[in-house]
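Table 4 source record.
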Amino acid sequence: MSVISIEGMEFFAYHGCFKEEQLIGTKFNIDLFMKVDTSQAETTDHLSDTVNYQEVFQLVKKEMQTTSKLLEHVGRRILDALKKEFPEIEEATIKIRKLNPPLGGKMDFVSLELEL
């Protein structure tokens, strides 16, 4: 069993409970960790025997383009889409960071971590 990670994905999106967040948008960072049996790819050296990072990135990008009020909803949509598109992913953890959230004070980010 291996852990394939794609870390530091950056997106500009319109997620948030406040109307302004859905109009102005902000930056989000995503880290994704996927448990996958890579034993076949380890010997064949074929991309088709593992999870294609580019396809995973494109799936996350697509889901980030759909506006949601809650990070919980965004995270669950991404994990569900991953499981549907890549059934070889046995477990996954996603961490979503919302940079510069409008909470009335200075902070770097708020974050959510979900597991599949």
